[in-house]
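Q: Two folds, back to back.
A: First:
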Amino acid sequence: MNRINISKPFMGEEEIEAVRNVLLSGNLVQGVKVKEFEEAVSGFLGIKHAIATSSGTTALHLAIESLGIKPGDEVITTPFTFIASSNCILYNGAKPVFVDIDPKTFNIDPEKIEEKITDKTKAVLVVHLYGQPCEMDKIMGVCKKHNLKLIEDSAQAIGAEYKGQKIGTFGDVSALSFYATKNITTGEGGMLLTNNDVWADKTRIRRQHGQRMIYEYEILGYNYRMTDIQAAIGIEQMKKIEDLNNKRIENAKTLAELLSGIDGIVLPSVAPETKHVFHQYTIRVLDGKRDALKEQLNEKGIQSMIYYPQTIYQPGSESCPEAERACKEVLSLPIHPHLKKEDIERIAEEVKNYLEN
């Protein structure tokens, strides 16, 4: 049987031709295609500024830096995510302060944020994990009450919605990722989102060595540029984003129907009034059987992944029991748009066979 991978970029002749045209043009770095890609994303999301960068991590780094986060400050965030979320806080000399997760959504628990706020707290950084939107009303209410900035790590959630509003447009600043496994990809790449003109202006300077005009340096900057090659791919991917996300949602529905009622697993939930875009389809495997199921699926030619095998703080440094429990139980199954119905049926059958036998 063909191997079913956890992810597979959805590339067509349009992306290949777009890259070819850029290569032939000779204009490879942060040119007209980057601007066109930025406009496509800002238009899709309904946000004023979308600023392309070299990765989701660099977009998030610039997002945090644009708010003036500095050494000694604290930023409240989740311990259950990719490490870049906390690394970008540390890059600015600030301290990540961890709040436990909601066991149903795997996102930060909004009911527990307020108890971690101190006089050093400057911002809350939320992560819309697996494409599932956070509970933004409650989180925004806490931020407003305590005059805190809100940062959205939307790396896994482009196209997701909370109460009809696109994720990435709630925060003071937000960050997207276009890494190869994401719902749309440029191979590597990211984007900072904001409606604030001042922060956007500083970010555009910072991503290019701190210069507004060539060799005129205004502030400390970085080489965080996106290439026109990446942007050309992104432009074509944006034309397909609704279809690609809808296919993931359809695949998730089919997989949920096939796995429903099987003892020993908990299926992912979709929070009310949200559009979950299923960057990952993540189940919980109970009773200590997760690793054995993963091994069994691999033997049957089905790749699954653990996102994430540990929290991003040092064990024992503080207690986030729900996050720690999730690390021992979560298993992400293939959900990408390349899957056919028979692939999904095969995944479900192998999960069922292992747990029932």
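A: Second:
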Amino acid sequence: MNKVDFVIITGLSGAGKTQAMKVLEDLEFFCIDNLPPALLPRLVELHVQSQSARQYAIAIDIRVREYFSDLRQSLEWLEGSGHSYMIIFLDCSDSVLIKRFSETRRLHPLIKGKTEAESIFASIAEERRLLAEVRGMAHVVIDTSDMRPMDLKVRISDIFAGIPLQESVLVDVFSFGYKYGAPIDADIVFDVRFIPNPFYVDELRHLTGQDAEVADYVLRWPATQLFLEKFTNLIYELLPDFAREGKGHLSIGIGCTGGQHRSVAIANELARRLENLRVKARARHRELGWSSS
């Protein structure tokens, strides 16, 4: 979708507004929780004064219900000011909402003054009635009844960023030396000690995989090229599945004996190839204390 200046997240309590705001924050929106709609023009004024390209995400829920009467007027003002906006309404079935409140032991914001027997059912029904007009104004309605948090993340990312799943995961490729210990914080570890070792070439021994001479030596072998081609394609093909499971960061360890030559050159080349596929990738080198980011 086209870029919007203001995104308004609203909907039923327990339907996932907090999760949606976290996703938008990850997408570099400036997030504001429970801004009274009447203050929206003031926020726009500050936005204009700052002359920034910042996008805003504003969560409005039933806790500020006394201000909902101002929402339509504020949105009309916003539209007339030339700023784009989108309203997304999060819906959910009564049975799922009741289960969520029971599991989290949270009280519904409208529960005050109701008997225990009627409280949750009556509160949800009252909230639906109070939010009916706002729901009708929404550009997008998402039913989260059958959604896991990672499903909502993918849906929000698709709506507001239009980012292919392969581009939504940061791939952290790092080199290391087995002689200093295998990493315990990597999602995937690959041993590249099958590649001829530049350490045994006198003119290359004192250099590292950061140097062109070493990189050329490591990358010239057919086995190296075969590995890079297949491993790059494998990671690229799996990234959408990692993203669907809510993983925003994938750590790949590339190891050789000392972490100076082969693993360094391979990590750099793997990150470069992934970047050419429009994947967010960076290379760093544990034993060299260096990062490309």
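Q: And?
A: Residues 222-244 form the longest helix (23 residues).
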